[in-house]
Design a protein that fits this description.
The protein contains ten helices and 13 strands. By secondary structure, the protein is an alpha/beta fold. The structure holds magnesium ion.
Length: 296
Protein backbone atom coordinates (compact mmCIF):
# COMPACT_ATOMS: atom_id res chain seq x y z
CA UNK A 1 0.00 0.00 0.00
CA UNK A 2 1.30 3.43 -0.86
CA UNK A 3 1.45 5.81 2.07
CA UNK A 4 1.29 9.05 0.09
CA UNK A 5 -1.94 10.25 1.68
CA UNK A 6 -0.63 9.83 5.18
CA UNK A 7 1.75 11.66 7.41
CA UNK A 8 5.08 9.86 7.62
CA UNK A 9 6.96 11.25 10.62
CA UNK A 10 5.86 10.82 14.19
CA UNK A 11 2.65 12.69 14.82
CA UNK A 12 -0.09 10.34 15.84
CA UNK A 13 0.90 7.57 13.48
CA UNK A 14 2.12 4.46 15.18
CA UNK A 15 4.66 2.02 13.83
CA UNK A 16 1.92 -0.61 13.52
CA UNK A 17 0.50 -0.49 10.01
CA UNK A 18 -3.23 0.09 9.83
CA UNK A 19 -5.13 -2.80 8.27
CA UNK A 20 -5.97 -2.52 4.61
CA UNK A 21 -9.51 -3.69 3.81
CA UNK A 22 -9.26 -6.97 1.88
CA UNK A 23 -10.24 -6.67 -1.77
CA UNK A 24 -13.95 -7.21 -2.33
CA UNK A 25 -14.99 -6.47 1.28
CA UNK A 26 -18.02 -4.28 1.98
CA UNK A 27 -16.82 -0.89 3.12
CA UNK A 28 -18.66 1.74 5.13
CA UNK A 29 -17.13 5.20 5.62
CA UNK A 30 -18.02 7.02 8.85
CA UNK A 31 -16.98 10.64 9.01
CA UNK A 32 -16.98 13.68 11.22
CA UNK A 33 -17.94 16.93 9.48
CA UNK A 34 -16.34 20.15 10.81
CA UNK A 35 -12.58 20.10 10.23
CA UNK A 36 -12.83 16.65 8.59
CA UNK A 37 -15.14 16.42 5.55
CA UNK A 38 -15.87 20.16 5.83
CA UNK A 39 -13.17 22.83 6.01
CA UNK A 40 -12.90 24.15 9.60
CA UNK A 41 -13.34 27.79 8.55
CA UNK A 42 -15.35 27.80 5.31
CA UNK A 43 -17.41 24.58 5.80
CA UNK A 44 -16.65 23.75 2.14
CA UNK A 45 -16.25 20.10 1.11
CA UNK A 46 -15.37 20.38 -2.58
CA UNK A 47 -11.77 19.26 -2.03
CA UNK A 48 -13.29 15.85 -1.13
CA UNK A 49 -15.50 15.64 -4.21
CA UNK A 50 -13.46 12.96 -6.06
CA UNK A 51 -13.57 10.54 -3.13
CA UNK A 52 -17.27 11.25 -2.50
CA UNK A 53 -17.98 10.55 -6.19
CA UNK A 54 -16.09 7.27 -6.01
CA UNK A 55 -18.07 6.22 -2.91
CA UNK A 56 -21.33 6.99 -4.72
CA UNK A 57 -20.19 5.11 -7.86
CA UNK A 58 -19.27 2.02 -5.83
CA UNK A 59 -22.32 2.14 -3.50
CA UNK A 60 -20.15 2.69 -0.44
CA UNK A 61 -22.21 4.26 2.36
CA UNK A 62 -20.88 7.57 3.71
CA UNK A 63 -22.26 7.99 7.23
CA UNK A 64 -22.00 11.54 8.59
CA UNK A 65 -21.20 11.54 12.34
CA UNK A 66 -21.25 15.02 13.83
CA UNK A 67 -22.07 17.28 16.76
CA UNK A 68 -24.33 19.10 14.30
CA UNK A 69 -28.12 18.84 14.57
CA UNK A 70 -30.44 16.62 12.58
CA UNK A 71 -31.78 19.78 10.88
CA UNK A 72 -28.29 20.81 9.70
CA UNK A 73 -27.27 17.29 8.71
CA UNK A 74 -30.42 16.49 6.76
CA UNK A 75 -29.80 19.56 4.56
CA UNK A 76 -26.14 18.67 4.11
CA UNK A 77 -26.66 15.00 3.29
CA UNK A 78 -29.21 15.99 0.61
CA UNK A 79 -26.74 18.50 -0.82
CA UNK A 80 -24.13 15.71 -0.91
CA UNK A 81 -26.75 13.37 -2.47
CA UNK A 82 -26.33 10.84 0.37
CA UNK A 83 -29.17 8.46 1.27
CA UNK A 84 -27.27 6.80 4.12
CA UNK A 85 -28.01 6.95 7.87
CA UNK A 86 -26.38 9.78 9.83
CA UNK A 87 -25.53 10.35 13.50
CA UNK A 88 -26.31 13.74 15.03
CA UNK A 89 -25.25 15.70 18.12
CA UNK A 90 -22.31 13.59 19.31
CA UNK A 91 -24.20 10.29 19.14
CA UNK A 92 -27.54 11.56 20.47
CA UNK A 93 -29.54 10.21 17.55
CA UNK A 94 -29.19 7.95 14.53
CA UNK A 95 -31.38 8.99 11.60
CA UNK A 96 -32.36 6.77 8.68
CA UNK A 97 -33.59 8.55 5.52
CA UNK A 98 -37.07 7.55 4.37
CA UNK A 99 -35.81 6.91 0.84
CA UNK A 100 -33.23 4.34 2.04
CA UNK A 101 -33.58 0.96 0.31
CA UNK A 102 -33.10 -1.05 3.52
CA UNK A 103 -35.59 -1.16 6.41
CA UNK A 104 -34.50 0.82 9.48
CA UNK A 105 -33.93 -1.01 12.78
CA UNK A 106 -36.90 -1.69 15.06
CA UNK A 107 -35.72 0.92 17.56
CA UNK A 108 -36.19 3.75 15.03
CA UNK A 109 -39.44 5.71 15.01
CA UNK A 110 -40.75 7.73 12.05
CA UNK A 111 -40.44 11.49 12.50
CA UNK A 112 -40.72 14.15 9.80
CA UNK A 113 -39.48 12.06 6.87
CA UNK A 114 -36.70 10.31 8.80
CA UNK A 115 -36.53 7.30 11.09
CA UNK A 116 -35.09 8.37 14.44
CA UNK A 117 -33.25 6.09 16.86
CA UNK A 118 -32.88 8.06 20.10
CA UNK A 119 -29.77 7.34 22.18
CA UNK A 120 -29.12 10.65 23.95
CA UNK A 121 -30.77 12.57 26.79
CA UNK A 122 -33.49 15.15 26.03
CA UNK A 123 -32.06 18.58 25.21
CA UNK A 124 -34.13 20.39 27.87
CA UNK A 125 -32.61 18.18 30.60
CA UNK A 126 -29.09 18.84 29.30
CA UNK A 127 -29.63 22.62 29.23
CA UNK A 128 -31.02 22.57 32.81
CA UNK A 129 -27.99 20.55 33.93
CA UNK A 130 -25.59 23.07 32.35
CA UNK A 131 -27.30 25.86 34.29
CA UNK A 132 -26.76 23.94 37.53
CA UNK A 133 -23.13 23.27 36.61
CA UNK A 134 -22.59 27.01 35.93
CA UNK A 135 -24.06 27.86 39.33
CA UNK A 136 -22.03 25.20 41.12
CA UNK A 137 -18.68 26.13 39.57
CA UNK A 138 -19.38 29.90 39.46
CA UNK A 139 -17.77 30.04 36.00
CA UNK A 140 -18.79 32.23 33.08
CA UNK A 141 -20.31 29.65 30.73
CA UNK A 142 -22.44 30.33 27.64
CA UNK A 143 -24.39 27.58 25.89
CA UNK A 144 -26.28 27.69 22.60
CA UNK A 145 -29.52 28.00 24.62
CA UNK A 146 -28.18 31.34 25.96
CA UNK A 147 -27.25 32.65 22.50
CA UNK A 148 -29.34 34.38 19.85
CA UNK A 149 -29.14 33.09 16.28
CA UNK A 150 -26.83 36.04 15.50
CA UNK A 151 -24.52 35.10 18.38
CA UNK A 152 -24.40 31.47 17.23
CA UNK A 153 -23.56 32.79 13.76
CA UNK A 154 -20.71 34.91 15.19
CA UNK A 155 -19.24 32.05 17.23
CA UNK A 156 -19.51 29.44 14.46
CA UNK A 157 -18.96 31.49 11.28
CA UNK A 158 -22.21 30.00 9.91
CA UNK A 159 -24.64 32.22 7.99
CA UNK A 160 -27.91 33.08 9.76
CA UNK A 161 -29.97 30.38 8.02
CA UNK A 162 -27.44 27.68 8.98
CA UNK A 163 -27.09 29.09 12.51
CA UNK A 164 -30.86 28.76 12.91
CA UNK A 165 -30.59 25.05 11.99
CA UNK A 166 -27.68 24.68 14.43
CA UNK A 167 -29.94 26.02 17.21
CA UNK A 168 -32.55 23.28 16.60
CA UNK A 169 -31.00 20.95 19.14
CA UNK A 170 -32.39 17.67 20.48
CA UNK A 171 -29.65 16.09 22.61
CA UNK A 172 -26.41 18.04 23.01
CA UNK A 173 -25.53 21.53 24.28
CA UNK A 174 -22.40 23.18 22.84
CA UNK A 175 -20.90 25.70 25.23
CA UNK A 176 -17.96 28.02 25.82
CA UNK A 177 -16.16 28.67 29.12
CA UNK A 178 -15.20 32.38 29.07
CA UNK A 179 -13.69 32.36 32.55
CA UNK A 180 -11.63 31.00 34.12
CA UNK A 181 -9.36 31.15 31.07
CA UNK A 182 -7.83 27.78 31.98
CA UNK A 183 -10.73 25.84 33.49
CA UNK A 184 -10.00 22.91 35.77
CA UNK A 185 -11.07 19.96 33.59
CA UNK A 186 -11.39 17.70 36.63
CA UNK A 187 -13.99 19.97 38.26
CA UNK A 188 -15.95 20.21 35.02
CA UNK A 189 -15.90 16.44 34.50
CA UNK A 190 -16.99 15.86 38.10
CA UNK A 191 -19.89 18.27 37.75
CA UNK A 192 -21.04 16.65 34.47
CA UNK A 193 -20.70 13.17 35.94
CA UNK A 194 -22.77 14.18 39.01
CA UNK A 195 -25.51 15.22 36.57
CA UNK A 196 -25.30 11.78 34.90
CA UNK A 197 -23.98 13.41 31.72
CA UNK A 198 -20.81 13.37 29.61
CA UNK A 199 -18.54 16.00 28.09
CA UNK A 200 -16.91 16.02 24.66
CA UNK A 201 -14.47 18.42 23.05
CA UNK A 202 -15.10 19.40 19.44
CA UNK A 203 -13.20 21.75 17.14
CA UNK A 204 -14.90 24.92 18.46
CA UNK A 205 -16.99 24.06 21.51
CA UNK A 206 -17.21 21.85 24.53
CA UNK A 207 -20.35 19.74 24.51
CA UNK A 208 -22.57 18.47 27.32
CA UNK A 209 -24.69 15.44 26.44
CA UNK A 210 -26.08 12.15 27.72
CA UNK A 211 -24.07 8.99 28.10
CA UNK A 212 -24.13 8.24 24.38
CA UNK A 213 -21.23 9.50 22.30
CA UNK A 214 -20.05 9.10 18.71
CA UNK A 215 -18.46 5.75 19.59
CA UNK A 216 -21.56 4.20 21.13
CA UNK A 217 -23.76 5.36 18.26
CA UNK A 218 -21.26 4.09 15.66
CA UNK A 219 -21.14 0.72 17.44
CA UNK A 220 -24.94 0.36 17.18
CA UNK A 221 -25.01 1.44 13.55
CA UNK A 222 -22.15 -0.90 12.61
CA UNK A 223 -24.01 -3.80 14.25
CA UNK A 224 -27.01 -2.95 12.04
CA UNK A 225 -24.81 -2.83 8.93
CA UNK A 226 -23.03 -6.01 10.02
CA UNK A 227 -26.30 -7.96 9.96
CA UNK A 228 -26.65 -7.06 6.28
CA UNK A 229 -23.11 -7.24 4.94
CA UNK A 230 -20.59 -10.00 5.38
CA UNK A 231 -16.93 -8.96 5.74
CA UNK A 232 -17.88 -5.41 6.61
CA UNK A 233 -14.89 -3.07 6.97
CA UNK A 234 -15.45 0.29 8.66
CA UNK A 235 -13.29 3.31 7.83
CA UNK A 236 -13.58 6.24 10.29
CA UNK A 237 -12.31 9.80 9.86
CA UNK A 238 -12.23 12.59 12.46
CA UNK A 239 -10.10 15.49 13.69
CA UNK A 240 -11.02 16.17 17.35
CA UNK A 241 -11.26 14.42 20.74
CA UNK A 242 -15.03 13.94 20.34
CA UNK A 243 -14.16 11.69 17.37
CA UNK A 244 -11.77 9.44 19.30
CA UNK A 245 -14.51 7.10 20.68
CA UNK A 246 -15.61 6.59 17.06
CA UNK A 247 -12.06 6.05 15.79
CA UNK A 248 -11.50 3.46 18.54
CA UNK A 249 -14.37 1.35 17.19
CA UNK A 250 -13.64 1.29 13.45
CA UNK A 251 -11.37 -1.07 11.54
CA UNK A 252 -9.44 1.69 9.75
CA UNK A 253 -9.15 4.83 11.94
CA UNK A 254 -7.90 8.01 10.26
CA UNK A 255 -7.05 11.24 12.09
CA UNK A 256 -7.54 14.13 9.68
CA UNK A 257 -4.77 16.65 10.21
CA UNK A 258 -5.69 19.96 11.89
CA UNK A 259 -3.84 22.72 13.69
CA UNK A 260 -4.02 20.70 16.92
CA UNK A 261 -1.76 17.78 17.76
CA UNK A 262 -2.55 14.67 19.76
CA UNK A 263 0.83 13.04 20.43
CA UNK A 264 -0.62 10.40 22.80
CA UNK A 265 -3.39 9.25 20.46
CA UNK A 266 -1.22 6.48 19.02
CA UNK A 267 -1.12 4.86 22.48
CA UNK A 268 -4.92 4.93 22.78
CA UNK A 269 -5.55 3.85 19.16
CA UNK A 270 -2.43 2.03 17.90
CA UNK A 271 -3.81 1.60 14.36
CA UNK A 272 -4.41 5.34 13.87
CA UNK A 273 -2.88 7.11 10.90
CA UNK A 274 -2.88 10.86 10.28
CA UNK A 275 -3.49 12.44 6.88
CA UNK A 276 -0.82 14.51 5.19
CA UNK A 277 -3.25 17.31 4.30
CA UNK A 278 -5.86 19.04 6.49
CA UNK A 279 -9.67 18.92 6.28
CA UNK A 280 -11.46 17.77 3.10
CA UNK A 281 -8.23 17.60 1.06
CA UNK A 282 -6.81 15.12 3.59
CA UNK A 283 -10.14 13.25 3.61
CA UNK A 284 -10.06 13.01 -0.18
CA UNK A 285 -6.51 11.63 -0.39
CA UNK A 286 -7.01 9.15 2.44
CA UNK A 287 -10.34 7.75 1.20
CA UNK A 288 -9.13 7.50 -2.42
CA UNK A 289 -6.03 5.65 -1.31
CA UNK A 290 -7.90 3.21 0.95
CA UNK A 291 -10.51 2.51 -1.75
CA UNK A 292 -7.89 2.14 -4.47
CA UNK A 293 -6.26 -0.63 -2.45
CA UNK A 294 -9.50 -2.29 -1.33
CA UNK A 295 -11.78 -2.23 -4.36
CA UNK A 296 -11.63 -5.15 -6.76
MG1 LIG B 1 -14.41 17.98 13.77
Amino acid sequence: MKRDAFHDNGGSRSSIAAPVPPKGSSIVVLTDLDGTLLDHDTYDWHAAQSALDLCRLRNIPVVLVSSKTRAEMDVLRRTLALADPFISENGGGIFFPGEMAESPPQQAQPERGLWKWTLGSPYGDVVSALKRIRKRLKWKITGFADMSVDEISTHTGLDRASARLAAMREFDEPFLVHSPSRPDERLLNEAASDEGLSLSLGGRFRHLHGKSDKGRAVEKLLAWYGCRHRDLVSVGLGDSPNDFPMLERVDVPILVRSTKEYPDLGKRIPRIRMTRLTGPAGWNEAVLEILRDALP
